[in-house]
Amino acid sequence: MKVSENVLAVLLEDAEIDERAARWDYSGRGMYGRTCFGFTGNVRTLAAFFTQLGFAAGQKVAEDGSRCDELETLIDVLAGELTTDSMGLDTIFYFPRVEVIREEG
Q1: Is the whole model's pTM more than 0.90, yes or no?
Q2: How far apart, in whole angstroms, are the C-alpha atoms of residue 26 and residue 47?
Q3: 31 in a domain, yes or no?
Q4: Domain-embedded: residue 60
Q5: 63 dihedral zone (left: phi>0; alpha: psi -120 to 50; beta)
Q6: What are phi and psi of 12, to 5 degrees?
Q7: pLDDT at 61
Q8: Residues 15-60 pLDDT 10s
Q9: Any idea what DSSP says for residue 40?
Q10: Considering its fold, how many domains does the chain have in total?
Q11: CA distance 76 to 68
């Protein structure tokens, strides 16, 4: 699945996850040099991220009365692709099969 870097950055910000926690080019176990999006933190950080993603999907439904299939799909994909590595005191949560689209400018 392709996801805008801006969408992920806003989700991190709204979940009050420090922008320094974001990793836009993490290469984890078994990725063989490929990179992906991830962020560092703990279980509370992960819960805040998914809570904010669910809230964003709910807001979209509330605003125009329609379902937001894109955000619902994103929730399913991120949850299904979640992988972790230990980073000492923190954990990195990363998503190997989610392609981040970077906007220029």
Answers
A1: no
A2: 20
A3: no
A4: yes
A5: alpha
A6: -60, -45
A7: 62
A8: 999 999 999 999 988 889 999 999 999 999 999 999 999 888 777 6
A9: E
A10: 1
A11: 13
| Domain coverage including residue 67 | 2-18+42-101
Q: Which residue stretches of the chain are H helix?
A: 5-14, 43-64, 69-81
Residue 1 three-state SS:
coil
Dist. CA 24–CA 100, nearest whole Å: 8
Quickly count: other Cβ atoms within 10 Å of residue 97's Cβ.
13
Instruction: Specify whether the CB–CB gap between 24 and 100 falls below 8 A.
Output: yes
Of 21, 11, 37, residue with least CA distance to 91: 21
∠ Cα 84 101 85 (to 5°): 10
Q: Does residue 94 form part of some domain? A: yes
Q: List the structure tokens of 7.
A: 């969408």
Which residues are 38's β-sheet partners? 23, 94
Retrieve residue 38's tokens.
């991830």
Token pair belonging to 52: 């904010």
